Amino acid sequence: LIVGAGPAGMSATLGAMEKKLRFATLEQEDSLGGTVYHYPRNKIVMTQPVTLPLAGKIQLGEISKESLLERWQGLVARFAMPINFNERMEKVETIDGGFLVRTQRSEYRARSLLLAIGRRGTPRKLGVAGEEHAKVVYRLIDPEQYQGRKILVVGGGDSAIEAAVSLAEQPDTQVALSYRGEAFGRVKPRN
User: Fold this and answer.
1) Is the pTM of this model over 0.85?
2) Closest alpha carbon to 83 in 166, 176, 5, 189
3) pLDDT tens-place string over residues 173-183
4) Most buried residue among 21, 107, 146, 181 by CB atoms closer than 10 A?
5) Is the pLDDT of residue 121 over 60?
């Protein structure tokens, strides 16, 4: 059983198909893409060349979120990848010979379980008063909705830098970036 249809889950699905294994792939969202699916509109994604089972070598470089998702959807269609969308894993139990996985729709018994769920959905919170308010968000979908506001972006990784830049490009928007380090040492050179 494969849980997740982001890049790792799609690769695992293709690998299982190539090996002619009996499997199911579950995805809690209504579309594939994992974290990339939730990136802001028109975000440029920097990809590395990758060799996928059945598909071979894929080299995209810098590509927009929408174009990348379109390419992935093309792979799903081309190989008729069986992905159960809108099916969220709710509980896992170990049983003799493997695992029992429960979703809101069904129950799966599997000898092996691959969790290709990434880290989206588990943001590292600050532990400060006020972070539970609706105006505090952990991902940026549409920078335009913050036009004309004062924004504080917390973090020093690629996501924080990219969010701060896209927000700063909005008219009349003031952006401050807060990072506990002395320098931005873990960002891609382009950022």
Assistant:
1) no
2) 5
3) 999 999 988 88
4) 146
5) no
